[in-house]
Amino acid sequence: MTDGGRIERDRRRFEEIVRGQIKRDLKRYVTGSEMIGRRGRQLVSIPVPRIELPRLRYGKNGGGQGAGEGEGQGDGSAGEGEAVGTAGSEPGQHLLEVELRLEEMAAILGEELELPNIQPRGRARVEVTSRKYNSVSRTGPRSLRHMRRTIKETLKRQIGDGTYDPDDPKLVPVADDLRYRTFREVSTPDHAAMILYMMDVSGSMGREQKEIVRLVSFWIDTWLRSQYRSLETRYMVHDAAAKEVDQDTFYRLRESGGTKISSAYELAAGMLEEEFPSSDWNVYLFHFSDGDNWSGRDTEKCLGLLRDRLLPGANMFCYGQVKSAYGSGQFMKDLDASLASDERVISCEILDREGILPAIKTFLGKGL
């Protein structure tokens, strides 16, 4: 095996080990707040335990540096004699930063939660052009040289001009024999999707509740981006009033105040009607709150907005109720009592960080 082949084999082996480690510790990665801070545009930095591959070493078994009796005493300084402080009996954990593409993380998430691929609805909104290297040309760069076709052309030429000797075969390509891989552009239809995340940032939603919402939203977004090439994401926060914000503000905002859920649903309905018609878009709505609302009358208004203006244009509406010491939790009860028969409405209670993975599976498990 060539050095290049061994390097490629070792690289694949390393990636398999890392992937297995992430699968085993998926809950820790999904529920850890540091993941959001480590994300880049296309990559996420994963801290995994340092991987030590087994090695053979010459020498006698046992013994080793420092195994015999020492003479004299150190002066108490670190690195000589006894170490300063109390020594532990367990080895330290050495972490290795590994960068993975977000689509790889989405694939791992989908495998572990057994998430079905989404079947888009409606007509394709855009055409996506891609390159497929399935043709051969007489010209091209050295890096795309097609060796098999080149040798084939050389063999045909030498047989044709009588220079091929089967007892002493020597195939020497000339310029006219060279062949190169080339591409053709292929246009495929692509469905567009829009995700709207709505979060209650009122005073009854504490810091931990808001952090749980951000984690659930991050992983839902990661999965949906693996399902759609054309995806637009919008963010909205609300207390007694709603406003659209950018992604960074959504993930960092700390606010307080009263709660009026209908303010978010009204703003969302206007957004869908003006910018995202259901004939062109697959629309996913996610709302997170602790279930506390200003009044029963406002809840009735919310249910009316859902029935008449939001659900008709949406693939699904998901409501995640995060348990809070100050939230009544009543909104989820009213939502289920009124719209439980509509398969596009999915509700889930998230008690703590342990409920993040089950919530993601509940929301995305139908593949709508």
Describe what this molecule looks like in 3D:
The chain is α/β, with parallel strands linked by helices. It has three domains: 1-52 and 93-114, no CATH class; 127-187, no CATH class; 192-364, Rossmann fold (3-Layer(aba) Sandwich). It has eleven helices and ten strands. The protein has helices at 3-24, 26-31, 34-38, 102-113, 147-161, 207-227, 247-252, 262-275, 296-310, 330-339, 356-364; strands at residues 43-49, 95-101, 126-137, 180-190, 192-200, 230-238, 242-245, 281-289, 316-322, 345-350. It has a six-stranded mixed sheet with strand order 7-6-5-8-9-10, sandwiched between helices. It has a two-stranded antiparallel sheet with strand order 1-2. It has a two-stranded antiparallel sheet with strand order 3-4. Strand 8, helix 9 (296-310) and strand 9 (316-322) form a beta-alpha-beta unit. Helix 4 packs across helix 6 and helix 6 (207-227) crosses helix 11. It is elongated and about 95 Å long. Residues 50-56, 63-67, 74-85 and 91-95 have low confidence and may be disordered.
Q: Give a count of the beta strands, DSSP E runs of length 2 or more.
A: 10
Query: What is the alpha-carbon Rg in Å?
Result: 30 Å
Number of domains: 3
Kindly report the oligomeric state of this protein: single chain
CATH H-level homologous superfamily name of the largest domain:
von Willebrand factor, type A domain
- Name the helix and strand elements from N-terminus to C-terminus, one letter apiece: HHHEEHEHEEHEEHHEHEHEH
For the largest beta-sheet, the strand count, sense and barrel status come to: 6 strands, mixed
Class of the largest domain in CATH? Alpha Beta
* Content of β-strand: 15-25%
